[in-house]
Amino acid sequence: MFVPSILKFELYFLECTFIILDNERYATSADELSSIVGDTNLFFQEEPGAAEIEVMIAEEWGRRRGLATEALELMIKFGNIHIHSLILRAFCSIHHDYLTRVLLSGKEELGKLKFVAKIKQDNIPSIHIFSKLGFIQVSESQVFNEFTFELNV
Ligand SMILES: CC(C)(COP(=O)(O)OP(=O)(O)OC[C@H]1O[C@@H](n2cnc3c(N)ncnc32)[C@H](O)[C@@H]1OP(=O)(O)O)[C@@H](O)C(=O)NCCC(=O)NCCS
After folding, report:
1. Which residue owns the Cα nearest ligand 1 atom 23?
2. Domain-by-domain residue ranges, the chain?
3. How far is the CA of 88 from the centre of ligand 1 (A)?
4. For the structural domain made of 4-152, what CATH number should be given?
């Protein structure tokens, strides 16, 4: 089984990115650049506890090996543990009302997390992957030709 390695974490103000490495390539080459297959991202939204999630396995040789599924599972686990502190750090300095809203929403609201995925309507593999992970389709945009899927945890 090929397990994606999480090489690098970077928190910009509104985005959290993990680069996905191919473990087997990295184990034999110790070369990070040639082992990169894609990335997975969280884009924080102003709604407390909500983040858009996406994945890209850019290299053809990396596809159909379960890497996207595993990377998303890891990102959801990571988000479950860290999302609130990351969002607070990310937003508080630029959105002065954000902390107030999080504080006002109370402990119960703060405990709720929502992952949002925007998927093109013809992207059958992604619809399959996100559905398998428990995401539910909540809306459809004719303008952008995409579905919105959500996972509440
Ligand atoms: C869609 C994408 C993320 C899939 O990555 P991947 O690592 O190949 O996916 P996985 O190997 O984890 O596949 C998971 C499931 O999807 C299925 N699948 C993957 N690619 C498929 C394809 N092209 N056609 C049909 N089914 C496909 C697999 O059979 C597997 O199903 P199973 O678990 O029931 O056996 C990748 O092709 C990609 O990056 N595409 C472009 C970017 C994109 O669409 N991102 C998603 C938007 S957030």
Report:
1. 125
2. 4-152
3. 32
4. 3.40.630.30
